[in-house]
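Quick question, first post here. What does this chain look like in 3D?
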Amino acid sequence: MKVLAAMSGGVDSAVAAARAAEAGHDVVGVHMALSKSRAQTRSGSRGCCTVEDASDARRAAERIGIPYYVWDLSDDFHHLVVEDFLSEYAQGRTPNPCVRCNERIKFASLLERARILGFDAVCTGHYARIGTDGPDGAPSLHRSRNLPKDQSYVLAVMGPDATGRALFPLGEFEDKQAVREEARARSLGVSTKPDSYDICFVADGDTRGFLSRHLGSDPGQIVDADGTVLGEHDGTHGFTVGQRKGLGLSRPAPDGRPRYVLDVDPASRQVVVGAAELLSRRELVARDVVGFEPIAPGREVTAQIRAHGEATPGIVEAVPTDGEGVLRVRLVAPVRGVAPGQTLVLYDGDRVLASATLERHA
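> Answer (accepted):
Ran it through. Tokens below.
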């Protein structure tokens, strides 16, 4: 099989490419240059698509013995991921840029280019597993054996078609140390490289500052659940549901307990804050459903709303029909910090059933 291996310059993608080549596939490595600044350098575990990363990927490809290329996808990345991130925050939503990157770059832009060039599949270093237990043997997506590193949540938006053209050689690894040891044994040169984390295009980790620089100032009020004005802010884009720190309030709640962001409304320029218990939701409502198999009302599922959050058992109450309507899930126990724009992923055991985007209110 002819395989295009996406090589970020990290240990995971290097080992994945090596395993694909060892399995007998005809592998070509490609580094996706996603940053507009080619002179950008890494800061520990922060940053992406740096000159160091491209060089690390090239050296790993040479060691594996596969061809290696750099593809400039920075325009696609900026338009489809960064601008989407800014637009979502401007609308008072909380997007997950990793979900968008996997959907629109790694398994849309990259996969389409691979198809045009005659590749059968794209190989990445994601921690997830692919099966064939979907409807009529269709491709299915499962959690990784390494549950702390599982990335099925951010991959669920791929859907079954893209999943059927993907390879995830690291899905069977039970811990990250085993991956590093294999990289060391293969002399790939990246065995001790730190993992990247946070939002890759916010290299300094200051998401609020990044949003302020790009979206500017749009002052408004911070109010409590009764509408009492408690303070002012420079822009609703600096807040997300569930946030506790950085509210900038001069006085505590009357009962002395912490306040949390309950809602963000760009139209009124208001940020609503209140007690922690007001954050709890037992019903989830979502649109833009990407399904791996048909789901009917009454189906028992587990629901996850954060990349590394726990999945909560629930029952599907409603599903879209012919693209109309919403996906509605009733949870057996409330979850906190449900924010519009977050990704909802439904599971049956370790198998992904569907991905969707949460709406503002249940």
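The CA atoms of residues 284 and 316 lie 10 Å apart.
The helical segments are 11-22, 51-64, 74-90, 97-116, 152-155, 159-163, 176-185, 207-215.
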